[in-house]
Design brief:
binds zinc ion, alpha/beta, Aminopeptidase, single chain, 2 domains
């Protein structure tokens, strides 16, 4: 079987367009936001999807943010579906003639979503795949009824009880840490939430084993970070989810989040991994049972150990990290105190990676 991988040139072209002066930061309900939305629709149509809004169009109005979700579908054999979602809006102009361009947040993820549609084109999976370009993810709409994904769950175009897993992407465009770190660190892609649904961890591991060079998927508990993207409403509705992210970096919500800073090889590899993941998720037997409060502690420890071991070759502080992790090794569930200690280790890794 050949390794799946996105098309770097097409990814770059889409990111450049979404981060252009014309799109002006892609705020919902603005001319730039509409231009971005039109482009997302054209890209999903160009990848061979069907329109999936209730009225037969591509667009689900989101009155609360004066925007629209863009919805496409790859039909499957069965009645059930997997959702792949990424928000395409961003923070708009900054008031000084610049804009928040939003390359990592979230043009890269939109490009990954489009590439996954291309990679799965012509495949008939057991489940349909619903591709959702969400509007209104950013403040002031975040976690309000005006958030595109909250609205999607409140007025679902497809029955929620037939969605087995929601895969959300945010901030998937950058290399982890400063330049010069080993690829095993820089290529890391966090995959959070596997503990919230039965069978998800195995699906992630099988897809990761087939991931192309350039991305290193690493499972982590979703509770190592606050809810910060479109999976929020799905989690509340007790739909199992997976959240793919490279985490926040120094350009997060700054006007310096621009296309030339992104890692296009990693983005293309991420698309290949996600296509494999969707194939795995679509093939899982039975309905996915949601696990309330489910965590992924043991896998988090394994992921941190992998990052720590690679970091240790260039940063002596990683030795402390590995020593701290050794007490958690092999434990399936951690106590509240241990979880707190693990969260401390995660922030230690974050500060090491951001050069702190
Ligand atoms: Zn975002």
């Amino acid at each position: 079987m050949t390794t799946l991988r996105g098309d770097e040139a097409r990814i770059r072209a889409l990111v450049d367009f979404l981060c252009s002066r014309e799109c002006n930061g892609r705020a919902p309900g603005t001319p730039g936001g509409r231009l971005a939305r039109d482009r997302v629709q054209a890209e999903l149509a160009g990848a061979g999807l069907e329109p999936a809004a209730p009225d037969g169009s591509w667009l689900q109005p989101v009155p609360g943010c004066d925007g629209h979700n863009v919805l496409g579908r790859l039909p499957g054999r069965g009645e059930r579906a997997i959702v792949v979602g990424a928000h395409f809006d961003h923070l708009g102009p900054d008031g000084t003639g610049e804009a928040y361009w939003g390359a990592d947040d979230n043009a890269a993820a939109v490009a990954v979503m489009v590439e996954v549609a291309h990679l799965l084109r012509g495949r008939e999976l057991e489940r349909s795949v619903l591709f959702c370009g969400f509007d209104g993810e950013e403040p002031p709409h975040f976690c309000t009824p005006g958030m595109g994904s909250v609205h999607y769950v409140a007025e679902p175009p497809f029955p929620l009880d037939r969605i087995d897993t929601m895969v959300c992407m945010d901030l998937v465009g950058h290399t982890l840490g400063p330049p010069g770190l080993p690829a095993a660190v820089g290529d890391s892609l966090m995959v959070m939430g596997a503990g919230r649904g039965e069978g998800l961890g195995g699906a992630v591991d099988r897809a990761a084993a087939r991931a192309p060079e350039g991305v290193a998927p690493r499972r982590m508990s979703c509770e190592v970070i606050p809810a910060l993207s479109d999976y929020y409403a799905f989690d509340k509705a007790q739909i199992p989810f997976l959240f793919l992210s490279c985490g926040r970096w120094e350009h997060y919500h700054e006007i310096t989040d621009t296309p030339e800073k992104l890692a296009y090889g990693k983005i293309a590899a991420t698309a290949g991994f996600l296509a494999e993941l969707v194939v795995e998720l679509a093939a899982l037997e039975g309905e996915r049972r949601y696990v309330p409060g489910g965590t992924d502690d043991a896998a988090t420890v394994v992921s941190l150990q992998a990052i720590g071991t690679a970091l240790a070759t260039v940063d002596p502080r990683a030795g402390m990290l590995l020593a701290a992790l050794s007490s958690f090794e092999g434990k399936e569930r951690l106590s509240p105190a241990e979880k707190q200690a693990l969260a401390g280790i995660v922030s230690m890794v974050e500060s090491t990676l951001s050069g702190g």
